[in-house]
Amino acid sequence: MKMRRVLAASSVVAVALAVTACGSASSNNTSSNASGNTANRVSNGGAKQVEIFSWWTGAGESDGLKALIKLFKKDYPGYTVINSAVAGGAGSNAKAVLANRMQNNNPPDTFQVHVGQELLSWVDAGKMEPLDSLYQQEGWNSKFPKQLIDMVSHDGHKYAVPVDVHRGNVLWYNKKIFDKYHLTPPKTWNDVIQDAKVLKQHNITPLALGDKDQWETTMLWEDILLGQLGAQDYDKLWQGQISFDDPRVKQSLQTLKALMSDVNSDHAAKVWQDASQMVAKGTAAMNVMGDWAKGYFTSDLHLKPNVDFGWTTTPGTEHDFMVIVDCFGLPKGVKHPEGTKDWLKVLGSVPGQDVFNPLKGSIPARIDADKSKYDVYSQQAMTDFKKDQLTPSLAHGAAASPGFLDAANKAINQFVNTGDIDTCIQQLQSAFQQNPPV
Amino acid sequence: MAMQPAEMTITQPRRARKPWTWERVYPILTLLPSIIAIAVFVYGFIVWTGVVSFTKWNTLVPDLSWNGFANYRAIFQDFRFQSDLRNLLFFTVLFVLVSMIIGLFLAVLVDQKIRLEGLFRSLFIFPMAIAFIVTGVVWQWLLNPSTGVNLILKALGLTHLPKWYVDITIVPSIPWGHIKFGLPLALLAVIIAAVWQMSGFAMALYLSGLRSIPDDLKEAAAVDGANAWTTFWRVILPQLNAVTVTVVIMLIHISMKTFDLIYAMTGPGAAFVTDMPSMDMFQTTFQGNHYAQGAAISIIMLLLLAIFIVPYLTYSLRGEKP
After folding, report:
1. pLDDT by residue (tens digit) across A250-277?
2. pLDDT at residue B230 above 90?
3. Which of B1, B60, B297 is most worth mutating to test chain A (most A CB atoms within 10 A of its CB)?
4. Beta-bridge partners for B171
5. Do B270 and A401 touch (CB under 8 A)?
6. Which domains does chain A carry?
7. Looking at the complex, does the CB of residue A414 fall below 8 Å from at least one CB of chain B?
8. Which residues of A touch B33 (CB under 8 A)?
9. ipTM of the predicted structure?
10. How many angstroms separate the Cα of B68 from the Cα of each of A232, B52, B53, B75, B285?
11. What is the rounded distance in angstroms from the CA atom of residue B220 to the CA atom of residue B127?
12. Has residue B103 been placed in a domain?
């Protein structure tokens, strides 16, 4: 009898606790959301604190984040930093968690997001504070390229601080294979197709692709599209000023279709690292991937740039720089806006950018960073970044809304298997109408 | 127990009409937490998902204005969801059927009063102890057309190697909506993995069914001159009908919810040949921010499940009444 009473009583207490916990979840989140950080049991109301939300959990990037936090603590002593990094799915898990928290009006003090439409969809939802005065105060208006500032701006207000820049329009190739068969880095997609004929004779896959996660083919297509349209018209397409049934868009799909016969047949079973590995091992000659592949070549596979692997811009995009940029902003209604602003100041500073980017393998978003801290690939990319036309990536959320990207991934996946250009164009067009840019 | 006498003496006089004895309050109190939790987190959210599926909430900004059946029309016209329905149909039928047959076969074998029965029993059930996500990763390697079992097949001299889960062939290929209707061959690879994992479970259920058949029946059949084969088909199998229903229902609901296996093993697949509604729902909602359409997919999944679960529940609840 006694035992039963204890059981019953404890279950009632459990319910009571659960109910109150639900009720107060919105006002007190630190204990449940801080990943492994137990140091902040104390009330968070007035404490000097900042919660940083990201998906930087991979090797180089988590080191970079740690180095940034260390620098922040040195420059602004007294802050407790909560590192809320969510692992998995190339950020898709983190985005789901973030959406949940934002809708519950429980935003992290600052969060990682790609520049362009991915950021602007939060701005458009009325969830972000403008940072114009911070830009003014820190003199950032002249320190980031204007085209990049445009990608974090809406109606003339700036909403986020860019941290790192990756380039999307890079064609990587196995240098030894190219030397062996006397090939030169291709200038046009037709060159690629011609080279492919030679390579196939020697049982080498001309172009490696791993599109299990779908975005990889979308990325290949956007690079073809950029080469076909040129930077200005490429921008116009995403602003709705050029229609998807433009003959050049069709031509880009035609090129993609032609390339698919030079791609490894098991591309749907591979991810981008597998494709990079094919180039590294020499079973494939070329691969189109963002320049995070460089980090994979050098750090994970221990290859030497310009010896084992080489790179060039994807055909027709010599003077364009397809940017994939992470930025951080200040959500509305955060608990520690001062902490966020201090954190953003460190992120936007030269020391901040130079401590993070060499570790992540990206280049700084500022144009006045210290080149000597970067490797040979990055130094060249930094030079290009200053002079090239910056174009937003579709596959990484900058060019179009998340809704359109989801639909485009679907349409392109279907297209590379059916080869039906008209259906693909029609699907892209209607998806663009249903998911217009902000 | 020690308190019982004292309690009794106090409450004795009014015993006839006392409504709230400890014996009555106790079960209610112990059930209360789960009732509240299930009411809120299961039924509450089912209702909420249903509501959302009729709204215009298809961006990051919640927009709860009425959208009628537009989201349902949109998903049924979507080639991806059409592929999902096709895949789900073939996956469920084959997965359930093959798991059942293999499970029954293993159960009969294990039931032959063999030596080391416990060892074999555990061996067949072990895959079930593994998470689907692990199964997915392992079979992704095994059935990878360029690195997996194909290397063995190649060494054996086979020239036409199966392409496993990257095969986009659909048999037969009948035009249906925006897609081709038929069995996508890539699904076979996924079915192999799922059957490997779950046929041990079917075996366990069948084995318990076999063990509960009274020996008299078998003896009576033997006396009547039935051979082993006839005994199995005419006497034993009919006794297993109830088990079969349970196995089918359990496997169907596992197959309809399949997400982790697909996520780890193939993803949506080339031309969505291995996609499932759950996968579509996840990406539509959390990557495309189409919350209302994602909710509509969830509701369709729920309805499909209900078609099988509700008759089963009514049947088994009716069966429990004396």
Report:
1. 999 999 999 999 999 999 999 999 999 9
2. no
3. B60
4. B183
5. no
6. 45-165+324-389 (3.40.190.10), 170-322+395-434 (3.40.190.10)
7. yes
8. 11-12, 14-15, 18
9. 0.82
10. 40, 11, 9, 13, 19
11. 37
12. yes
